[in-house]
Amino acid sequence: MSSVSPFHGLSAFPPTPADINGRVNAEALCRLLGPLCDAGVASIGLLGSTGIYAYLTREERLRAVEAAVECVNGRIPLVVGAGALRTDHAVDLARDAEAAGADALLLAPVSYTPLTQEEAYQHFLAVAKATRLPLCIYNNPGTTHFTFGCELLQRLSDIETIRAVKMPLPADGDLRGELARLREKADLAIGYSGDWGAAEALSSGADAWYSVIGGLLPRTALALTRAAMAGSGGEARRLDGLLQPLWEVFKAHGSIRVVYMLAEHLLDVRAELPRPLLPLGPADRQRVLDIARPLIVLERQSLL
């Protein structure tokens, strides 16, 4: 297990290559993880939303964790998603991840019947008690339809192993204000997803960027992260500007559809979207490829 904090800096979230039946391709997954290790990302977010955790069986999720642990071999901390509808299932997944060698957990309050704040608290408490791994709260109301109140985050931060929160971009755009409110209430490392807001979030004082594009273009994402966190606003804006066309197609089509297509067409890693998700049509696919190809060239040539 790595001793490096997984909740600061760039956390890269790669796709999980799997076939149409949801069987994980361990060899293909390792081909995606190798460049992340070589780039030196702060952590790898395995089985996040981009990693299709919600669509995989317990057995396939364990296959992915075991393959990643073997491939990474302690070089980079692995943060493994353990979200599930039932608390006992989430506990099982958390224990599986710990036994396989994960470094930390990422937990979303997955729900069908909307959860109350108390139900979410008890769910997180049960999972936190089940392992010794540090845990990051996954606040993703766009998929879970659950919103964490500040009081709930404060209560959760009092649990010893809950160390961080992965936040969505604020609807009002007030990152500095939100960070100040969260830090006043909860003793947690605060990071953000929503790649198009990463430069501003990090420049505003966020501790981490939980990045979709970092799973495919780790050197580019790492350069942006370092510039923003170092206060080099001009360089951060330059890099963010290079990525703006990609952010636009992320917003238009959903980042998961875009990165799965790019993994196959540009990185030669076949990764099927789980049904009922469908791949991009020919015209949209060509547009995305045209946008991404020069970024891939820059990534490979380290011309940043």
From TrEMBL:
It comes from the Bacteria. CDD domains: DHDPS-like. GO terms for cellular component: cytosol. Coiled coil: none annotated. Pyruvate binds at T50. Belongs to the DapA family. This is 4-hydroxy-tetrahydrodipicolinate synthase.
